[in-house]
Predict the structure.
Amino acid sequence: MPVSGLKLGARKLMIENAPKLFFVSIVYIIITTVMSELQVRLPGTYNALNQYLDILYEGILPKPEDFYSHLRVSGMALAAVFILLYPVVRVGFMRYCMNISRGQGGDYKDIFDGFFFFGKIMLIWIISLFFIFLWSLLFLIPGLVAFYRYRQAYYILLDAPEKGALQCIRESKRLMAGNKLELFLLDLSFIGWVILENIVVMLLPVTFSLPIIAIWLTPYYGLTCVAYYDQVVKRLVI
């Protein structure tokens, strides 16, 4: 099925599952937005690092106590927790989209299903980032290829929770062999929506811009990605 067909199917599912689908998307967007904002607004994180860099730009070599005097451990700890929780919540929303796409219904609690696989999600996240980073050292394109190579690992985990993190990564690599460009083009087809979202965010306060774009785009993209994953799995089996 071409990308246009996958996206058309996603739009039909969105209409069929409204308004609950959009309410769940709102909950997911609020959670992830709050976590992202707190990562840079907590005491001792973004502002403290900026102050540290300002000292360096002035040509002064700061002492360790200069850094730690601005760096509150509690703020950094909470920011680290939010960074770790983000992929877990994201996988939960992937579960919700997967249930909707397969006609299994969906519930608000699906967003938190990622916590049942917390350890494996963390391992997939860390290992994937590590390999993507190593490939990126060669050049941007190898890093991008690596990103798409491991893209389906979370879906594989959701389909078979008994599988280990490395097994999910290996199977994602096998699943995406010859399909990475196809998935890249699928992502590229959403670029217009992303640009529009950023324009609206710049023009309107975030409280107004989120309902206009993100609440539509988030489930739209999520359902399309699930449909693509199911298509690739079916194609591989056949």
User: Anything to note?
Assistant: The chain has one domain: 3-237. The chain is about 80% helix and 0% strand.
